[in-house]
């Protein structure tokens, strides 16, 4: 009897561990290295940046950051968001915006390579210049002692002793299959008579986001992908060539406001990731804070919350409006680039 019990236990363990590549525990608590703290208990590392959560996740899962909120159970539940069978791609062309909105980034280049019996092609992209996900090695806490997520230093990313730490490959191994929620700020603002250009530092407040969620009758769940439409692509498509060429030097863009109440709201909602159609998710240039932080610093370097930028949300906005539902199933699979700083998202919403 003892032998049979041991055999059954061993077989059960083998079945549990025979999970596909990239699969993670069902329960977020199994990924935690410590109890999930309240916002007021941050920072976890007193030597780290503002409100950091370094050391929250077990070391073998730390490279996923906030994606650890997305469990298999939550992915299974997300399938209930598929009601119409509509698939809506969320990716801009790789050459859009053109020119890239950060002046140091090169333009997309595509070359056809004809051979005698076949044709190849090659592309050159800056992974930040069109629709993309930032990895956790993109943006550090600023200052004389720059630090990336979980205390990673510049020499861990650049130089002869560099490793793949915090690279996009961790996301690529897991993939994204989740419940997405669109907050269509542009549509709501239009209904409220609020006029603005996406090419100005128009700050979207937390009260604005809550008002949009209330108008759309949506509620959030842990592990959700927060999707914010600011109207950036709508305005970009209306701009002429001269206006588009001027955007990189103008350097002002719509986005969410940099306030501590915004940080608290994001932390308490346990989003797996945050994506938008605009330049930096947050309004740019960033609002100056006494502690010197920006949302990029806290989200990426502090919490490991990956950011999606320049996503094409125009079709999604129309589909959500037609369906009457603002939540959906969303998938994404970044390029498997060991040590990658960013990647096109290859994202699709399914309604």
Features:
single chain; about 350 residues; alpha/beta; nine-stranded mixed beta sheet; two-stranded antiparallel sheet; 12 helices; disordered N terminus
Number of strands: 13
Q: What percent strand?
A: 15-25%
What fraction, in percent, of the residue positions are helical? 25-40%
Radius of gyration: 21 Å
- Average pLDDT works out at 92
Give the spatial strand order of the biggest sheet.
Answer: 1-13-11-5-7-9-10-4-12
Tally of individual helices: 12
User: Shape from CA axes?
Assistant: globular
How many strands, which pairing sense, and closed or not: the largest β-sheet? Answer: 9 strands, mixed
Q: Secondary-structure element order, as H and E? A: HHHEEEEHHEHEHEHHEHEHEHEEE
Quickly give the structural class. Answer: alpha/beta
N- to C-terminal distance? 52 Å
Textual characterization of the structure:
Strand 9 (273-276), helix 11 and strand 10 form a beta-alpha-beta unit. This protein has 12 helices and 13 strands. It has a 9-stranded mixed sheet with strand order 1-13-11-5-7-9-10-4-12, with helices on both faces. The protein has a two-stranded antiparallel sheet with strand order 2-3. It is 29% helix and 15% strand. With 351 residues, it is an alpha/beta fold.
Short structural summary:
The protein has about 350 residues and is an alpha/beta fold. It has helices at about 1-15, 30, 70-80, 155, 170-175, 185-190, 205-215, 230-240, 240-250, 260-270, 295-305, 315-325, and strands at about 85-90, 110-115, 120-125, 130-135, 175-185, 205, 225-230, 255, 275, 305-310, 325-330, 340-345, 350.
